[in-house]
Design brief:
By secondary structure, this protein is α+β, with helices and mostly antiparallel strands. It is built from 6 helices and 8 strands. A 5-stranded antiparallel sheet has the order 1-2-3-6-7, with helices on both faces. A 3-stranded antiparallel sheet has the order 4-5-8. Strand 6 and strand 7 form a beta hairpin.
């Protein structure tokens, strides 16, 4: 079942989401919700979806970066972004423990809750995340590159934050203008042209 995705301005997107207990996670309701979120994310399509984006203030997100999504991205851009396929998984009650290398990288990001726009967003290159999985079991995720960016983006949603809170505001652009002016350009060149 495809669920409606709420857009910027909905109060739920600005709330600190509620943690889930292991018992709740194993419930039929949450297991069913995870399935619906997976379908909704794929239907959008997107690489991540947090429960607040479907109107539920819960510390739950689904993530998947399918190989088929990479077809429209050049090999050079995939390498630059360190973007590789990420299998479907669930993160519940996540906490970012550390940014391993202290390195920050900037790329354009979009969001299903802000359709039609992109902006440059600085993010940690690598992260370590402690969370619960879809069975309520503890797990640690070590991620770098694009996968680390996806995790940070989704975890932001669970804390009531959107990428526009972190973006380089001068880079905020419609998708049409991003494609016309910035797509494929080196980030340093984009920043120079925007004076940021």
């Amino acid at each position: 079942m495809l669920l409606p995705i709420v857009h910027a301005g909905e109060p739920v997107l600005r709330q600190q989401a509620r943690a889930l207990s292991p018992q709740e996670i194993r419930s039929k309701e949450i297991q069913k919700l995870i399935g619906h979120m997976r379908e909704t994310m794929r239907g959008a399509p997107g690489v991540g979806l947090a429960a607040p984006q479907i109107g539920l203030s819960l510390q739950l997100a689904v993530i998947e970066d399918r190989k088929e999504y990479h077809k429209e991205v050049s090999a050079e851009q995939l390498a630059l972004r360190e973007r590789r396929p990420v299998p479907f998984h669930v993160v519940i009650n996540p906490r970012i423990q550390s940014a391993h290398d202290g390195q920050t990288v900037e790329f354009f990001e979009g969001c299903l809750s802000l359709p039609g726009f992109f902006a440059l967003v600085p993010r940690s290159h690598s992260v370590r995340v402690e969370c619960l999985d879809h069975r309520g079991k503890s797990k640690t995720i070590e991620a770098s590159g694009w996968y680390a960016r996806i995790l940070q983006h989704e975890i932001d949603h669970l804390g009531g934050h959107l990428y526009i809170d972190r973006m380089r505001s001068r880079s905020f652009s419609s998708i049409q203008n991003w494609e016309k002016f910035w797509k494929g350009k080196p980030i340093a060149e984009v920043r120079s042209e925007l004076g940021s």
